[in-house]
């Protein structure tokens, strides 16, 4: 066997090995991609904020989330009826369209995992029943969601708010700003000072649960 022929055979084997390795690497994520794509295609194209028409009447409290503006805890709670009414007015009639790019985004993240990084921004509002259970959650930021969009999730599908979301975004920003302002009333410089809870609209989770008579274990 000549050197040229041996070289050609060796090159062919190497190329075949590369294709086999590539196929083994791609098969699992592509299979999951196909499954998720089919699942999304079968899901509703549009959803509303609440999964049940009766859920809006059950809203008894609101949790607002924001990292990093709300510190390590990342969230505050309120029972204030005016805040609840304003938030429902801003979000209840909002429609959300299915984001069909989610499957492709997850495929890219699996094939090429992003580098771990600190920082970032995430925000959201959760509508809660009297026991603190989530009836609906609207999020901004986070992984596998287009930046700058408000969204809700239904199982493994992501739905993005229609239009510019100016009203919804302004409402969320206002609640976060008010929660930050309430934090400024806390006497952090003196640990034994009584918290002015009667002056606060937005409470830490433990404060809110204590006011409602809920234990942390019920979260």
Rg of Cα set: 24 Å
Task: Provide the succession of SSEs.
Answer: HEHEEHEHEEEEHH
Total DSSP helices? 6
Basic shape: elongated
Q: Which structural category do the helix and sheet elements fall into?
A: alpha+beta
Largest sheet: 8 strands, antiparallel
The whole-number mean of residue pLDDT values reads: 80
Strand share of the residues?
Answer: 15-25%
The count of strands amounts to 8
Q: How much helix is in the residues? A: 40-55%
Polypeptide structure, described:
The structure is a single chain. By secondary structure, the protein is an alpha+beta fold. The protein has helices spanning 3-42, 55-58, 81-91, 102-111, 166-183, 205-212; strands at 46-48, 61-67, 75-78, 95-98, 122-128, 134-141, 150-154, 157-161. The protein has an eight-stranded antiparallel β-sheet with strand order 1-4-8-7-6-5-2-3. Strand 6 and strand 7 (150-154) form a beta hairpin. Helix 1 (3-42) packs antiparallel against helix 4 (102-111) and helix 3 runs antiparallel to helix 5. The radius of gyration is 24 Å and the shape is elongated.
Keywords:
6 helices; eight-stranded antiparallel sheet; 8 strands; 219 residues; alpha+beta; 42% helix
List the helices and strands and how they pair.
Layout: H1 3-42, E1 46-48, H2 55-58, E2 61-67, E3 75-78, H3 81-91, E4 95-98, H4 102-111, E5 122-128, E6 134-141, E7 150-154, E8 157-161, H5 166-183, H6 205-212
Antiparallel strand pairs: 1-4, 2-3, 2-5, 4-8, 5-6, 6-7, 7-8
